[in-house]
């Protein structure tokens, strides 16, 4: 019992400490008082906060890792043992399902509020505009939990107060302490089987989008369902493990396109749709300008800036590398070390009009030599 | 003989009409509906929140001392393959329907007496065994009931159940809105137990506002309709849903109170007993004229 | 009329093969009735939570009341419109109505879950309930019918009260009681006769109001605010056919010559009455536009067509034909069709049209229910036979009179 009290204390203190790290200067924020307060002069005792504006609120949340590992819910223990909630695990999962506001739907820039600040512990109460604490907890948890567990039995989450046979609260706390959600299995490529007759298949290079194009998970997976990964009834998990076979598109046309149109709104259908599996993105094929070994390492936004619309850039090196002068430039960086004959001549002798994007010319000096059959030095890696 | 008849006729007719006129006062009083209490209570059932745990079924049985068969197990979700109705041993049941928006979140619907504002059962009952109370509850009085089952014919929601297998003192069984618990200042048993507070207990007028607010805030979650707001003149229990109520086996009903037509017919026929007395007088007149004509012919 | 007609007791043998069959059927009914009282309604009937009313209400009560309408229609004809020619039908019609209403009351009694509280409507009033009105009217009307029948009892027993043995001292008081009652009733009978007619119009129509409250649960072919009017009109229309039907059956059973002139006269009135009923029924259908439901083929539309065509339109045509009115057989057929029509209408109204929203199965009466209903009808016929043997009900030509009543009160009440 003592262990229990201590552990709860630890959790509460850690909660306080973590919340204290958030700035409390919300009065200096660029919002009007009426956004949150009903009355003109809110006090600490009577903040007269608006009832549940949910998404309209201005919010700021710490990362999942800075929140508490475990929260013990022990306000309603008349029938069951306190609930031990692995907060960090859920916070990490929430990054793909709407974020902290999925649960902390009402928070100012101040400390994270305790649910019972607004949700009454008593069911018989005056203000019935929002659910009581029991209702609020269950509405939050069961909305996901019953989708993958397919169970609504009380004892599937709660330990009975009398005749408790499962793990104790302290054991549960230690079990979830320092535990993180495992890395999510990310596919490289997914082929979608669509109904579009001029191009049935849409090849989606997931890895390109996440690494190359610089998209974050939540940019697309902002409302992912838990059962994508957690479904006790689901036998084949091909959606998670193997993406080789075309995946039949389940959602409506509008819904599917919505995700892509954020960037691809101006592309033609054939940009994505084809009757065959498409090749990965190839800068040379798409733009006619091959990426060399240095450019390959860059993410697109390094050169193209705005990640929503990658417009065509000038292929002249000076366009980006404006700081280079013949004195500071080492030709080795292009993969070709110039031999002694060529190292001292002016750039324009070979690169006409200092156009470095096009093929260099040799006929200024040589009649019988041509790039790339003849090279003015040796290639290096 | 004929003259004798005529004198008797007039004498007794006067007495009869005098005595008949004295009846209507009491009769009319009995038929006057009591005004609805502005602060009557109700329950808002949010079917998008209900998880189908069936704790309400168990709590209801416990609160009303109803038999719990050994087969009764609220965790048996196979029972949702059936569509059940409240009966004499279960005053409330939960049914499950597919949810077109998300097949993993089926829509669960708790069914019980709607506690109409203008209840058909109260109007129809031959002995007035049903009462619409100030707090909104519609209850049944076993000391009056004669077991005619007209309430079951009248109820637009088909709620009252009858104990057909009892030879003596069979009862009409229906949700009584936990009338006794409410008088002890307790919540209805189902409302108290509901883990998700899919059932919100409060004043009907407040519940309507809450319901409208929920629809306004989450238009993607709810259809813009509060079942029970206007159905058969309004009910104490109100429902919110994410799909059409007709898909959830709610009857499609008009906004007129269920007993409306019947009561206006009754009031038409018995407008202070004037039509029956007028008919009586008319028939008496016809009889008197015909007899006189007849006796004159005989003379 | 060739002979003057006088009501007289019939001197016939009670037990015949037909009677024996009826006794068996009655006994069978009583067995199921006993089970109902021992083990409850659910044990004997097919009623369930969706179908609270079965044939005991639709046939025994609703149709029973409608088919006993001969009592008030003939009373209106004989006493109020004062047609002397029809006096001979008054007592048989009165007896049928009296027995009919007794059995309606008894059918209600057995159908009530708490039959021992049948008297409750007397003290707990609910003015908005059409059932309350029906109950009160039926109760009062049955009493009125008994009072109307009292002179027949008096006629039979005055001067002939003859208790044997230790009860012989009662002979004198009972005799004088009968005489006093008879004298009093002779002066006041018209009150009861008019009351009987008024009460009948009230509860015949209110019986129709009963199902109006079922609202959407009733098929629109029958659900109409003028249901009470239709019930009243059909009850009036079936009154005379019922008298004709009974008279012809009684004549055959008791081996008498039917009074065809009287019956043809009655039949002549049926046509217009049926016509009014049909006009309202069709008119209502046209106004509410419910004829669209006739285009779909289901139990309801088929039953409606049978009810209207077989039960109303065909007999309506027949009753306007002189050939039918003069023929014993055709008159019987036409009357039977009207009776079937009204019977079907009541069954349709209470059972076929009633489609409960959550029914898992449709209702069909159980063997127990059918047995009890048939048993009731059998007892009704048996009692009728007994009554016409004990009391001067059926009128016989004077020359055939075997027993001469001391008090020759013609036609029941005067």
Structure description:
The complex is a heterotrimer of chains A (381), B (299) and C (414). Chain A is an alpha+beta fold. Chain A has helices at 2-20, 87-93, 133-149, 169-176, 206-212, 217-220, 238-241, 253-264, 283-287, 300-304, 317-320, 340-343, 347-350, and strands spanning 71-73, 83-85, 190-193, 201-204, 247-248, 273-274, 336-338, 377-379. Helix content of chain A is 26%, strand content 6%. In chain A, the strands form three sheets. Chain A has a four-stranded mixed sheet with strand order 5-3-4-6, with no helix packed on it. In chain A, a hairpin with a 7-residue loop joins strand 3 (190-193) and strand 4 (201-204). Chain A is elongated. Chain B is an alpha+beta fold and 299 residues long. Chain B is 36% helix and 12% strand. Chain B has helices at 2-22, 24-31, 55-63, 120-124, 150-154, 179-183, 189-193, 204-217, 260-269, 274-298, and strands at residues 41-46, 93-97, 107-111, 130-132, 138-140, 161-162, 172-173, 199-203, 237-240. In chain B, helix 1 (2-22) runs antiparallel to helix 10. The longest helix of chain B has 25 residues, at 274-298. Chain B starts with a helix and ends with a helix. With 414 residues, chain C is an all-alpha fold. Helix content of chain C is 67%, strand content 2%. Chain C is built from 14 helices and two strands; from the N terminus they run βααααααααααααααβ. Chain C has a two-stranded antiparallel sheet with strand order 1-2. The longest helix of chain C has 39 residues, at 171-209. At the B-C interface, helix 1, helix 2, helix 4, helix 5 and strand 6 of B face helix 1, helix 2, helix 4, helix 7 and helix 8 of C.
């Amino acid at each position: 019992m003592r262990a229990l009290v201590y552990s709860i204390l630890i959790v509460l203190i850690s909660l306080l400490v973590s919340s204290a790290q958030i700035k409390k200067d919300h009065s200096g924020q660029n919002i009007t008082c009426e956004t949150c307060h009903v009355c003109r002069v809110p006090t600490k005792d009577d903040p007269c906060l608006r009832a549940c504006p949910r998404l309209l609120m201005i919010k700021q949340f710490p990362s999942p890792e800075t929140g508490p590992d475990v929260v013990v819910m022990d306000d309603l223990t008349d029938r069951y043992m306190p609930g031990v909630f692995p907060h960090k695990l859920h916070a990490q999962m929430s990054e793909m399902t709407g974020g902290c506001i999925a649960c902390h739907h009402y928070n100012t820039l101040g400390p994270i509020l305790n649910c019972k600040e607004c949700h009454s512990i008593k069911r018989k109460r005056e203000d019935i505009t929002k659910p009581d604490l029991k209702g609020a907890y269950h509405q939050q948890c069961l909305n996901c939990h019953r989708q993958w567990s397919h169970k609504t039995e009380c004892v599937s989450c709660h330990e009975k107060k009398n005749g408790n046979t499962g793990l104790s609260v302290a054991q549960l706390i230690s079990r979830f302490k320092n535990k993180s959600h495992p890395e999510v299995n990310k596919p490289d490529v997914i082929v979608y089987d669509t109904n579009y007759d001029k191009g049935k298949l849409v090849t989606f290079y997931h890895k390109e989008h996440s690494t190359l194009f610089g998209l974050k998970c939540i940019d697309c997976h902002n409302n992912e369902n838990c059962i994508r990964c957690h479904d006790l009834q689901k036998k084949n998990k091909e959606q998670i493990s193997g993406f080789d076979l075309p995946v039949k598109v389940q959602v409506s046309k509008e819904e599917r396109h919505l995700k892509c149109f954020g960037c691809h709104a101006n592309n033609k259908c054939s940009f994505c749709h084809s009757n065959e599996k498409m090749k990965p993105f190839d800068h040379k094929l798409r733009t006619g300008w091959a990426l060399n070994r240095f450019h390959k390492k860059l993410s697109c936004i390094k050169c193209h800036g705005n990640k929503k619309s990658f417009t065509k850039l000038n292929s002249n090196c000076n366009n980006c590398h404006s700081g280079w002068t013949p004195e500071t430039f080492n030709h080795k960086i292009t993969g070709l070390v110039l031999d002694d004959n060529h190292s001292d001549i002016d750039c324009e002798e070979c690169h006409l009009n200092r156009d470095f994007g096009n093929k260099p010319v040799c006929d200024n000096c040589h009649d019988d030599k041509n790039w790339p059959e003849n090279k003015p030095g040796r290639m290096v890696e | 003989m004929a003259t004798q008849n005529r004198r008797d006729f007039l004498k007794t007719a006067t007495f009869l009409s005098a005595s008949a006129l004295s009846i209507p006062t009491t009769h009319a009083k009995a038929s006057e509906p009591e005004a609805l209490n502005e602060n009557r209570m109700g329950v808002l059932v949010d079917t998008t929140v209900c998880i189908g745990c069936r704790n309400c079924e168990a709590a209801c049985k416990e609160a009303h001392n109803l038999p719990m068969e050994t087969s009764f197990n609220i965790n048996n979700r196979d029972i949702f393959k059936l569509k059940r109705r409240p009966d004499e041993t279960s005053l409330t049941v939960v049914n499950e329907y597919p949810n077109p928006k998300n097949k993993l979140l089926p829509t669960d619907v708790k069914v019980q007496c709607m506690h109409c504002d203008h209840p058909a059962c109260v109007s129809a009952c031959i002995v007035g065994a049903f009462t619409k109370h100030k707090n909104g509850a519609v209850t049944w009085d076993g000391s009056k009931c004669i077991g005619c089952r007209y309430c079951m014919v009248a109820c637009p929601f088909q709620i009252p159940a009858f104990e057909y297998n009892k030879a003596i003192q069979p009862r009409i069984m229906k949700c009584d809105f936990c009338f006794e618990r409410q008088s002890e200042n307790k919540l209805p048993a189902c409302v108290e137990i509901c883990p998700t507070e899919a059932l919100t207990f409060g004043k009907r007028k407040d519940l309507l506002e809450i319901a409208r607010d929920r629809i306004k805030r989450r238009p993607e979650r709810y259809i813009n309709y509060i079942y029970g707001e206007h159905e058969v003149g309004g009910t104490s229990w109100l429902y919110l849903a994410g799909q059409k109520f007709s898909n959830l086996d709610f009857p499609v009903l008009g906004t007129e109170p269920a007993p409306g037509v019947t009561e206006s017919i009754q009031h038409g026929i018995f407008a202070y007993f004037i039509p029956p007395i007028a008919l009586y007088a008319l028939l008496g007149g016809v009889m008197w004229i015909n007899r006189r004509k007849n006796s004159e012919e005989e003379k | 009329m060739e002979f003057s007609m006088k009501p007289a007791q019939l001197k016939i043998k009670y037990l015949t093969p037909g009677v024996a069959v009826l006794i068996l059927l009655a006994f069978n009914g009583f067995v199921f009735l006993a089970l109902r009282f021992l083990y409850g309604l659910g044990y004997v009937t097919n009623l369930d939570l969706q179908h609270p009313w079965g044939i005991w209400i639709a046939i025994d009560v609703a149709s029973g009341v409608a088919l006993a309408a001969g009592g008030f229609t003939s009373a209106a004809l004989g006493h109020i419109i004062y047609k002397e020619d029809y006096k001979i039908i008054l007592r048989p019609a009165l007896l049928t109505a009296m027995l009919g209403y007794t059995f309606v009351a008894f059918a209600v009694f057995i159908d009530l879950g708490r039959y021992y509280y049948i008297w409750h409507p007397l003290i707990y009033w609910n003015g908005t309930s059409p059932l309350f009105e029906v109950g009160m009217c039926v109760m009062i009307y049955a009493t009125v019918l008994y009072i109307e029948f009292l002179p027949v009892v008096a006629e039979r027993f005055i001067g002939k009260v003859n208790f044997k043995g230790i009860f012989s001292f009662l002979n004198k008081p009972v005799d004088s009681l009968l005489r006093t009652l008879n004298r009093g009733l002779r002066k006041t009978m018209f009150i009861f006769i008019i009351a009987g007619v008024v009460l009948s119009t009230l509860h015949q129509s209110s019986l129709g109001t009963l199902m109006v409250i079922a609202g959407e649960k009733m098929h629109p072919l029958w659900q109409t605010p003028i249901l009470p009017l239709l019930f009243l009109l059909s009850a009036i229309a079936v009154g005379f056919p019922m008298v004709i039907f009974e008279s012809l059956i009684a004549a055959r059973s008791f081996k008498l010559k039917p009074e065809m002139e009287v019956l043809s006269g009655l039949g002549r009135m049926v046509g217009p009455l049926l016509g009014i009923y049909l006009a309202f029924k069709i008119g209502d259908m046209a106004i509410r536009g419910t004829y669209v439901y006739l285009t779909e083929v289901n139990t309801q539309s088929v039953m409606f067509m049978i009810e209207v065509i077989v039960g109303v339109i065909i007999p309506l045509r027949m009753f306007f034909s002189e050939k039918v009115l003069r023929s014993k057989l055709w008159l019987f057929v036409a009357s039977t069709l009207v009776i079937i029509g009204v019977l079907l209408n009541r069954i349709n109204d209470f059972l076929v049209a009633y489609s409960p929203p959550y029914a898992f199965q449709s209702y069909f009466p159980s063997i127990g229910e059918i047995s009890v209903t048939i048993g009731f009808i059998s007892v009704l016929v048996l009692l009728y036979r007994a009554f016409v043997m004990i009391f001067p009900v059926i009128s016989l030509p004077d020359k055939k009179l075997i027993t001469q009543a001391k008090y020759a009160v013609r036609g029941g009440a005067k």
